[in-house]
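Agenda item 2: pyridoxal-5'-phosphate complex prediction
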Amino acid sequence: MSVQQNIISIRKHIPAHVQLVCVSKFHPDEELLEAYNAGERVFGESKVQEMCGKQQRLPKDIHWHFIGHLQTNKIKQIVPFVELIHGVDTFKLLVEINKQAEKQNRKVNCLLQVYIASEITKFGFSSDELKSLLATAEWQALKNINIAGLMGMATFTDDKNQIRSEFKSLKMLFDELKNIYFSDNASFKEISMGMSDDYQIAIEEGSTMVRVGSSIFGVRNY
Ligand SMILES: *Cc1c(COP(=O)(O)O)cnc(C)c1O
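Presented output:
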């Protein structure tokens, strides 16, 4: 199926309140343009170099989301244009993003990545780490970042019940943090969870943003 056909069939399962992020990493410009011409404007990339190149070449009304593991020395390259950084998993990274954003006179939207999977390879805060981070007032002094919500990845497994319970735990943590720290902050609203194989479960469990790659663009050639 073509990119356009894939998008049409995926869109049928995504309600209007859920943002589709088209994960275009490792795919060439032409394929992003196919998605663009099908109406998509939000693209997710995981490599700084690749995202910057695509941003320069492709239409300027695309919203670029960084979904990879961000190295501090590369933050300044994406700060001028990135709309949302999904995977912030240390306080140090938050501080560095804030520093670069301040230099470039921007406020950068960030999602805090939470470790919900049972695998040991995934990045992210544990829920306890995140609670103790937010309990300190330090993050509130960072005026050039906006904590827009949480992001998580479920375990890579066929066990749908496990995936569902991991998404449930992220949603519960979100609600808890919202109540304690962000009740008067309308911009803390996103739960980025769900990929090609599990986005429908994620939506049922409260996802506001799904990151879908291979179901749109096909397999990636790394
Ligand atoms: C690559 C990637 C995706 C997309 O995965 P698919 O299974 O191809 O949909 C989503 N989120 C993150 C963080 C990724 O790195």
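Discussion summary: Residues 23, 25, 46, 67, 195-197, 211-215 surround pyridoxal-5'-phosphate (CB under 6 Å).
Owner for follow-up: CH.
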